[in-house]
Write a structure and sequence with these properties.
It contains eight helices and seven strands. It has 266 residues and is α+β, with helices and mostly antiparallel strands. The protein has one domain: 3-Layer(aba) Sandwich (L-fuculose-1-phosphate Aldolase). The chain has a seven-stranded mixed sheet with strand order 3-2-1-4-7-6-5, sandwiched between helices.
């Protein structure tokens, strides 16, 4: 089956809640380019997927072998939850990518976009027993809102899918122990900004822990538990003028990419 797409230059990629396939393809490609731009990628590995509107059980994912900086809107492979291609592409798909993403798309109705990276700080924090601590405002969004999944080897077996979705639960982020991090978004913008700020929070934590160690075991200051809980509620319940994650930032990201290299739209 051949997918005929409209001119990508006419899609409203800056609208974070757009839901037609052509626009989602451009936004998904933009997300790959942003992950590469901010140094969160891992060569040709890792994967970001988006649910195809109007096609239950189908999602778009990257072909195996392209750098994130090479991804564009027309390159994606459309597959179903069993890994079958549902378009005419012959490009391969990363097996672990299929296992992880099919689990989340099938198990979470709000998982329109699923993003998995091996970003360095997040992976380092995934190896700490305590995980991500509420040491910074960056981290407060995730306080009490991150699941943990123990490492089971490379995710090649479909049997792991039920444990992935169990451990994710209703959280927006899943820490993959000794492996990396996964974020879930109602929009591409949301999935990206959650991954971006998890990495920022993890970097701050590692810097603080390193500084404390270098200072001869200086004590890290953690806010009172009630304050951490308050900040978490403010972010997750969108108090005051806080909007859904990524809503404000996404148009600026599109402007950035259009200036740097608009080929992601092709």
């Amino acid at each position: 089956m051949t997918t005929v797409l409209p001119d990508s230059s006419k899609t409203d990629a800056a609208n974070p809640v757009a839901q037609d396939e052509a626009t989602l393809r451009v936004q998904l490609a933009a997300c790959y380019r942003l992950v590469a731009h901010f140094g969160l990628d891992d060569l040709i590995y890792n994967h970001i997927s988006v649910r195809v509107p109007g096609e239950p059980g189908h999602f778009l994912i990257n072909p195996y072998g392209l750098l994130f900086s090479e991804i564009n809107a027309s390159c994606f492979v459309k597959i179903d939850h069993e890994g079958n291609r549902v378009d005419d592409t012959t490009q391969p798909v990363n097996r672990a990518g299929f296992v992880i993403h099919s689990a989340i798309h099938a198990g979470r109705a709000d998982a329109n976009c699923v993003l998995h990276t091996h970003s360095e700080a997040a992976t380092a924090v995934s190896a700490l027993t305590e995980g991500l601590l509420p040491l910074s405002q960056f981290a407060m969004r995730f306080h009490g809102h991150a699941g943990f999944h123990d490492y089971e080897g490379v995710a090649l077996e479909t049997g792991e899918r039920e444990r992935l979705i169990r451990d994710l639960g209703e959280h927006p982020v899943l820490v993959l122990r000794n492996h990396g991090v996964l974020s879930v978004g109602r929009t591409v913008a949301e999935a990206f900004i959650l991954a971006y700020y998890f990495e920022r929070a993890a970097r701050v934590q590692l810097l603080a822990q390193g500084a404390a160690s270098a200072a001869g075991g200086a004590t890290l200051h953690l806010p009172h538990a009630d304050i951490s809980a308050l900040a978490s509620r403010q972010f997750n319940e969108m108090a005051g003028d806080i909007l859904p994650p990524g809503s404000r930032e996404w148009p600026a990201f599109i402007r950035l990419l259009d200036k740097l290299d608009p080929s992601y739209r092709d």
